[in-house]
Amino acid sequence: MTTLTIGFILIAVLIALVLLGMQIAYALFAVAFAGIWIIRDNLDLAFKMLELTAYSGIADYLFATIPLFVLMGLLVSVSNVGRDTFEVADVLLRRMICGLGVATVAANTVFAAVTGVSIASAAVFTRVAVPEMTRHGYRPAFAAGTVAGSSVLGMLIPPSLLLIIYGVLAEVSIGGMFLAGIVPGIMLAGGFVIMLIGLTIVVPGFVLSDPEASKARRLDLTAPKMPLRTMASKLFPIVMLVFLVLGGLYSGFFTPTEAGGIGAFGALLVAIARRSLDRHKLWDVMKQTGVISVSILVLLIAASFYSRMLSIAGLPNAIAGLVTDSGFGPYGFLFFYAVIILLMGMILDSTSILLIMVPIAAPIAQGMGIDLSHFGIVTVLAVEIGLLTPPFGISVFTVHNTLNDPDVSVEQIFAATLPFIGVMLAVLVIVGVFPGVSTLFL
Amino acid sequence: MSQDSPASRGQTNVPKFADAPFGAVLGTIAAMMSSFGTLCIGGLMVLVVADVLGRNFFNAPITGVSEIAARTVVAIVFLQIAAAIQQKRLTRADFLVRRLEKSSPRSVYMLEAFFALTGAAVFLLICWSSWPKLVSAWQSAEYFGVQGVFTIPTTPFRVITVFGAAIAALSALYRVLEEIRSFRSHKP
Question: How far apart are the C-alpha atoms of B129 and A37, rounded to whole Å?
Fold first, then answer.
């Protein structure tokens, strides 16, 4: 057997184990260890590489961004900043058709700029936005779908954990990835808004259970107005945090790790100033940060071990050869890649898909002359759609669990996110065809 | 679990010593290590902030922050991994397992035991492969940093790697036993 055949068999074994339900880190480690041992017929080499990845592989300044940004996201989530942003957006957009839906998207967009975790946004806005929308005549399932759908913005608008992980895997600058995410993120938010307004006009029954109530609210001139002062004080913390983190990053004043540290510290100050944090809650948040970051970091170690195995087997080069010979061209390759990721998104979570696919695909993309930042945005967008597709649409499950309303079933929420998936697919195609969208600021 | 899995609040599932002495000791060790790892994350934040403030406002940058931060990441991982294994918090695609659970729970126990055994083997390999490095780091008093500017011994970080991997392997092994026990006590 050639090393290539062995390599392909190993990937097949990996996929089978993962589908069976093995912990993804275990599967990656085990397959990669066996792979290096078999391909090189050298047990010592396998040991040596394992030691290298376990110790030096993660001893990297860049990896420190992950716990820091997770900590920042969780701190922002407990400090009611999300609720305040939503209230302000609601007051400003009251007169709009589907105003509350648009307010949810708007608040999510702003919130996404201080958190890199979709699930954090999903949990926060389920508690804040869904009851408000239901009270004003929106269909509960649609309200839940709107929250789930717009929560994916958290992963595209910087700072985003997925962009960090992609940057690490593909060896692209994380700051550059953050820049590349801006325009597609704004396009996605804009697309959601247009889609919401369009749906409300064309098929009001899908959006509203009580159109009169929503209309009455929209036309109610006596509604209490929020004084400018209150508005400013509600928005001040989030604007400051966005300014600190993104401003510091883009001006080159901070490295990504520093931006994470400063952001987490700023979020801590906000949470303390809001009195939303006591000692126990702080410890809870820190522990949760630990759990989330460790599960990501372990996967990253496992994935870097696996990608060493892949390059020993010479797989990326071989697949690149196959792809080039088949005459697909870069766009054909991008298309098939996106389809594979969409399919994987139905069973796997987003980090795992990145870890399995990027080490194989990034060298190929580079070989075909595709810009790696552009490629990353296509990857993350396709992966994000997986957050909303059954049966593993984790954002939908988060919303469903947080909502805990027996009248709203998971299936209904999945159905309500369909229009959002449509918008994401459209943005995915646009970004795929026009690389300039993501490389605009680079 | 990953960044987009539902986060549940930190419940510890350390069994009582009288019920399962091995599990209790292991659980306590893992919980202590995990708390220390949690503190490391706070320490990392403080370190980075102190460096940024010191550099820009007091003209006193902290030397070696990036090296220290990098090693801290290793410590965070290996301090918390055992707890993550015990609390079944590692990322996986569980759609098949969840479906099987209703129709044939016994096969799920077998699968879980096999998975945990693989995990134990993996961490044993990591522990085994890292051990010689620990010994040589200790014997040669290895350090990182720049000589004369700042130097930090690597031994503590090596110890955390080896010890963390060992406890992780034991935790996975304990899960194997638990799954087999459930398999036996569950009549088909």
Answer: 14
Write phi, then psi, for B87 (nearest 5 degrees): -90, 10
Q: Is A314 left (phi over 0), alpha (psi -120 to 50) or beta?
A: left
How far apart are the CA of A190 and the nearest CA of chain B, in angstroms?
23
Q: Residue A423 — pLDDT band, cuts 50, 70, 90? A: very high
State how far residue A260 is from chain B, nearest Cα, in angstroms. Answer: 8
ipTM exceeding the 0.90 mark: no
- For residue A277, what are the contacts with CB-CB under 8 A and spacing of at least 6? A75, A78, A79, A268, A271, A285
Structure tokens at B160: 């955390």
For residues A10-32, give the mean pLDDT.
85
**Which of A23, A67, A394 faces B92 most closely, judged by CB atoms?**
A23
Around A4, how many Cα atoms within 13 Å sit in the side-chain half-sphere? 8
Give the model's confidence band at A375: pLDDT under 50 very low, under 70 low, under 90 confident, else very high. Answer: very high
- In this structure, which amino acid lies at residue A341? I
For residue A370, pLDDT beyond 70: yes
- C-alpha distances out from residue B79 to A237, A314, A326, B89, B172, Å: 34, 34, 48, 14, 15
- DSSP assignment string, A119-141: HHHHHHHHHHHHHHHHHTTB-HH
CA B75 to chain A, closest CA, distance in angstroms equals: 9
Substitution target from A36, A55, A70, A163 for chain B, most B beta carbons within 10 A: A55
Please list every residue in chain A whose beta carbon sits closer than 8 Å to the beta carbon of residue B157.
Answer: 55, 59
DSSP code, position A62: G
Q: Which helix (H) or strand (E) holds B152?
A: strand B150-153
Residue in chain B lying closest to A264 (CA)? B45
Residue B151: strand pairing partners: B145
Closest residue, chain A, to B56 (C-alpha): A253
Q: Do B73 and A292 touch (CB under 8 A)?
A: no
Rg of chain A's alpha carbons, rounded to an integer?
Answer: 22
Tokens of A41: 């017929």
Nearest by CB to residue B42, choosing from A155, A286, A350, is A286
Say if CB A351 and CB A116 are below 8 A apart.
no
Selection from A264, A360, A265 nearest residue A319 by Cα:
A360
CA distance A165 to chain B (A): 11
How many residues comprise chain B? 188
Per residue in B22-41, pLDDT (tens digit) is 778 888 888 888 888 888 88
Residue A244, both tokens: 């600190």
Assess contact for A329 and A19: CB atoms under 8 A.
no
Q: Please report how many Cα atoms fall inside a 13 Å half-sphere around the Cα of residue A287, on the Cβ side.
A: 21
The count of other CB atoms within 10 Å of the CB of residue B97 is 17
